[in-house]
Amino acid sequence: xxxxxxxxxxxxxxxxxxxxxxxxxxxxxxxxxxxxxxxxxxxxxxxxxxxxxxxxxxxxxxxxxxxxxxxxxxxxxxxxxxxxxxxxxxxxxxxxxxxxxxxxxxxxxxxxxxxxxxxxxxxxxxxxxxxxxxxxxxxxxxxxxxxxxxxxxxxxxxxxxxxxxxxxxxxxxxxxxxxxxxxxxxxxxxxxxxxxxxxxxxxxxxxxxxxxxxxxxxxxxxxxxxxxxxxxxxxxxxxxx
Length: 241
Ligand code: ADP
Ligand code: MG
Prior knowledge:
The chain is globular and about 50 Å long. It is mostly helical. It has helices at 4-24, 26-36, 41-56, 63-78, 82-93, 103-121, 131-146, 152-170, 193-212, 231-240. It has a single domain (4-240), classed as DhaL domain (Serine Threonine Protein Phosphatase 5, Tetratricopeptide repeat). The model has no long low-confidence stretch (mean pLDDT 92). The structure holds adenosine-5'-diphosphate and magnesium ion.
C-alpha cells in the first residue's frame, strides 16, 4: 500500500483532475440537464469541484479529513439535488478511510457512498439517476476485488466500464426521481446527467489511480472496456486483420 503522503497527493490530484474534467464537460452536462432538468448540472459540478480542489490544495490533513473536506465543500457550493447527494455522501463515506486509503477501504468507501446516495435520494435502480451508473460500478468493483481477486486498477477499470453501461441504460428509462420525473414519459430517450457525471468522475479517478498505484496493470481510462477475448484470441484477430 502506498504511504500517507502519496495517498494525500493522489486525493489532491484526483480532485483537481475531476475539477478540470467537470469544467471541460460543463456544456455537455448542461445540455443533458436542459433536456430533462433545469440546465444547471454542468455549472453546479464545475463550480463545486473547483472549490473542492482549491480547498484541499496544500492541506496536510489525513486522507479521511481531506475526503471529508471535499464532501463539505461540495455541499456548500453545488446546491440542487447533486450537492447533497455527491457532497453529503462523500462526507459520510469518508469515515471508512479512518485507517487510510487501501484497496480494502476503497471497497468500503464505494459501498458506503452508494448506500448514502440511496439513503438520501431514495432512488432505486432503474429510476434514471446517478444510482444507475453507481450500482453496477460498485458491485463490479467489490466483486472484482473480493471474489475475482483482481488488482485494484483492473477492478476499477472494470467498474468504470460498468458505470458506462449504466449510463447507456438510463436512456430508455422513465425518470422516477428528481426534476426529470416531472416530465413523466417525456424523460424517456434522454441520458441522465447525474449518471453521466458519475461515470466521468470515475474515468478521472482511474487515470489518477493509474499514476499513483504501484500496479503493473496498464489501463486506458478513456476506453475502459475490458476485452472479452483472451490475449491469444486478440493476437489471432490482429493477424487476420
Ligand atoms: P437539480 O436536479 O436539483 O437541478 P442537478 O441538475 O445538479 O440538480 O442534478 C441532477 C441529477 O441528480 C440527475 O441527473 C440525477 O442523476 C440526480 N438525482 C436527482 N434526484 C436524485 C435522487 N433522488 N437520487 C439520486 N440521484 C438523483
Ligand atoms: Mg439540474
